[in-house]
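Input (Leucine-rich repeat-containing N-terminal plant-type domain-containing protein):
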Amino acid sequence: MSSVGESSLSLLTNLSSSLVSLHLPNTQIQGKLPSNILHLPNLQEIDLSQNENLRGELPTSNWTIPLRVLSLFDTAFSGYLSYSIAYLKSLHTLDLSGCNFDGFLPPSLSNLTQLSLLDLSYNQLKGSIPQSLARCTTLEVLDLGNNNIEDLFPYSLETLPNLQVLSLRSNNFHGIITSSDTKLPFPKLRIFDISYNYFTGILPVSYVHNFQGMVNVNDNQTGLKYLDKKIFTIFTIIDLSNNMFEGEIPKAIGDLHYLQGLNLSHNKIIGIIPLSLGSLNNLYWLDLSWNQLTVEIPMSLGNLSNLELLDLSWNQLKGEIPMSLNNLSYLQFLDLSWNQFEGVIPTSAQLATFSNDSFAGNLKLCGIPLSNACNEDNKRLPNSTLGKEKSRFGWKPVVTGYVCGMIYGIALAYNAFFIRKPQWLIRLVNVVLNVKLIKTNNRNRVTR
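Output:
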């Protein structure tokens, strides 16, 4: 059914009391949803998502139907999250993202002991996270991003034994994230996104040491269920960007062997880039830009054979660009601008594909693609290592508009496979797919 429309809403008022599932996503339903629909006694699944002109409010009392799935994301539902949600004892999927809900998170959410996915992102929720939410021990996905929540870091959540996705991005969280007293905090976490907040202090080293879900992964056992579909969590991401973290990058990050995305940009991080980052063989995305990193780029970054995005711009990095970066044959976005690099840009089929913007603001840097030509004193001959690199990777043509890489391909394949896709995963994929475009636009604005 591609379109229902406002005139057809009246037809929904006469639904059978024996109805078990109601799935009308993206059908252009308009108007206010009849309240009786949410009280049908046998209803187990409701999916009215992606109907942006569908209005309604959640019941405030006597809501005791055996609902297992409630998906209203990207609709115009509004009002408060009533305590009556707590009566939906069988609920395992609650996706109210992209609506107009406001008010506070009700502590009664802790009564939803079967809940595996809770997505309340992109609303206007405020207040703090109830500590009682830690009772939802079956929770696998918790996305509270893009709200107005004002709180300290929710330590109570670290005991959730099955949590794989935690997103608190774009809120008003603040304060220092101190060492954890829990023996194994967040034991299965694979996506940790606390970006765009006001956290301070050193990076949360104690969590990095204990992210077992990024160290040991059994793909046969790791997965999420959404609308009765099994979705394997193919991403492992840490995003701490756009906060006020200080200190050095923990060497222990190099032990997170399954880490695929690391974003520490827009903080106040000092010191060197640890050699241990070169051990992250599954890394696709590394962004350390807009910090205060010094010394040279470690040669070990050339070991990141799957890397597609590398942004080290706006730091205080020095020395020559290492020849080992020629090994990054899958690299699609490179930004080393506005540092203190010097010498010759390594010549290779790979690095030659990037524009001036990738190296701008390094006054002592010369060579292609910069207009600043090198003199005889600056030139350096390729060493034997470079010869091996060429023989291994050869010439790789770069096609405009090419969208390559396993993280993109797998993500799109999974999204194409599942007709009813989880919104948190779609948004995450969109972030990864658009990150190069966003960074290019931002860089152009800075250099104008």
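The first helix runs from residue 205 to 210.
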